[in-house]
Design brief:
about 280 residues, mainly alpha, globular, ABC transporter involved in vitamin B12 uptake, BtuC
């Protein structure tokens, strides 16, 4: 009955479709970031995307597209800097964090008096305001992300596990890392209206962390992580509708609850095996 009631509203239909798209794409990228030890890069790119959103709002252009451009540029810049080794990856991420959010705040403050700009929907998520146009854009971007992460999973995994071995095997390591950086940026933009730019990284990482507790292989971790991502997003959106809570925070709390359940199940499994 609850599901039927939720689906009676057009905005909730769009919200649930967006939730499924994000629940699939974020963990499919996150699994490679976890393997590479870059779990927080989603946060950095989220802050860079904020600058793009601000540009879009101030210039009356599509914030989704301007955020995509900014996030992709930021992702490529960080990967190039990391590859050349001129500064640590953590320093590059710090620059993204602070420069991105500072740029967004400064730019949005310059909005014309007759065109007020509000970043809240992008910072914390406002999934119920997703339009049909947004949904089509997210669907295209999500399809592109899944095409890369699923179709090229073997080579992306090889690079994530051991870059030196992958390079010795003839794989274009820099090119593959740049590709992963770009799809990470795209995932950030797809997810920003659902969970918000400040919480994007959680949906990329937490479902994968839960899956790693239960799964025994990379493939199983990826599949289970995506399933948990979709469950977190759909349950979170539905709960936020009835509880009147922010969708982004609710989705992340559901994901964390699933992680706690995974830990409990694994502990119980270990206790039974130890008998």
């Amino acid at each position: 009955m609850i599901a039927v009631e939720v689906l009676q509203y057009d905005f909730m239909q769009r919200a649930l479709i967006a939730a499924v798209l994000v629940g699939l794409t974020a963990p499919s990228v996150g699994v490679f970031l976890v393997q590479r030890g870059l779990s927080l890069i989603g946060d950095g790119l989220g802050h860079v995307a904020l600058t793009g959103v601000a540009v879009g709002l101030v210039t009356a252009r599509s914030p989704v597209l301007t955020a995509l451009v900014a996030a992709v540029i930021g992702a490529v810049a960080v990967e190039v800097v990391r590859h050349r080794g001129r500064t640590g990856g953590d320093v590059a991420l710090a620059v993204l964090f602070y420069g991105g959010i500072a740029g967004g705040v400064v730019i949005v403050s310059q909005a014309p008096p007759g065109r007020p700009a509000n970043l809240d929907a992008y910072l914390f998520g406002a999934i119920t305001t997703t339009t049909t146009s947004d949904l089509w854009t997210f669907a295209v971007l999500a399809a592109a992300v899944l095409l890369v992460t699923v179709g090229m999973r073997r080579v992306l995994y090889a690079v994530a596990i051991d870059e030196e071995h992958a390079s010795a095997s003839g794989l274009p390591v820099l090119g593959l890392n740049l590709l992963l950086a770009v799809v990470t940026a795209v995932s950030v933009v797809v997810a920003m209206r659902v969970v918000g730019l400040l919480l994007i990284s959680a949906l990329m990482i937490v479902p994968i962390a839960a899956a790693q507790v239960l799964a025994r292989s990379f493939r199983a971790t990826t599949v289970l992580g995506c399933v948990l991502g979709v469950v977190s997003a759909v349950v979170g959106v539905t709960t936020s509708f009835y509880a009147d809570t922010p969708s982004g925070g609710t989705i992340v709390l559901v994901a964390i609850a699933l992680f706690a359940i995974a830990l409990a199940v694994n502990a119980l499994r270990g206790a039974i095996a130890g008998r």
